[in-house]
Write a structure and sequence with these properties.
Organism: Chloropsis cyanopogon
Radius of gyration: 22 Å
InterPro entries: RGS (IPR016137), RGS10/12/14-like (IPR046995), RGS10_RGS (IPR037879), RGS_sf (IPR036305), RGS_subdom1/3 (IPR024066), RGS_subdomain_2 (IPR044926)
CATH superfamily of one domain: Regulator of G-protein Signalling 4, domain 2
Strand content: under 5%
Order of helices and strands: HHHHHHHHH
Number of helices: 9
Structural class: mainly alpha
Shape: elongated
Number of strands: 0
Distance between the termini: 42 Å
GO molecular function: G-protein alpha-subunit binding; GTPase activator activity
Largest sheet: none
GO cellular component, one term: cytoplasm
Helix content: 55-70%
Pfam families: RGS
Length: about 180
């Protein structure tokens, strides 16, 4: 599998698995990122990883803004909804949960961008897109950068690094280095 093929297919092998160039030779310059390394590259990468979403939600809950990522996720799921009846039900659920003035988890979107209940009768997959984009940008330019500096992120990153490089392996490597470099 060449790197360009992997990109096109959205297939990224785990670190350590070889990626070959178009001639079938190992491509050492490209290594797929995973976990916190991938999360740190973009909010999009974070939101594509279930563990990343879990950690981000945990962080947002502490900041009292978990509704933002929940709304974003609900909109992503809504786009996949098939059938007018199911769309109407999900659209109403999203509206009542996140957008109405009586919403239990109201998101902070611009007033004129709010939808009226009448639009719920004729739903379409992208009906929440403008609002979803607002919330995405709010997360991207506000909470995401704080998340990357948070204890939740940093502790997860540290535990990932310890799994990849257990202390006994580091010690053995140091011992070997001392033995062979004397």
């Amino acid at each position: 599998l060449s790197w360009s093929d992997a990109l096109l297919l959205g297939v990224f092998p785990p670190i350590g698995l070889e990626i070959n160039d178009s001639e079938g030779h190992p491509s050492s310059s490209h290594q797929a990122l995973k976990g916190t390394s991938k999360w740190a590259t973009s909010l999009e990468n974070l939101l594509e990883d279930p563990e990343g979403v879990k950690r981000f939600r945990e962080f947002l809950k502490k900041e009292f803004s978990e509704e933002n990522v929940l709304f974003w996720l609900a909109c992503e799921e809504f786009k996949k909804t098939q059938g007018k009846k199911q769309m109407q039900e999900k659209a109403k659920e999203i509206y009542m949960t996140f957008l109405s003035s009586k919403a239990s988890s109201q998101v902070n979107v611009e007033g004129q961008s709010r939808l009226s209940e009448t639009i719920l009768e004729t739903p379409h997959p992208l009906m929440f897109q403008k609002l979803q984009d607002q919330i995405f940008n709010l997360m991207k330019y506000d909470s995401y950068s704080r998340f990357l500096k948070s204890d939740i992120f940093l502790n997860h990153k540290k535990s990932e690094e310890q799994e990849e490089n257990p202390p006994e392996a580091q010690t053995a490597a140091k011992r070997a280095s001392r033995i062979y470099n004397t």
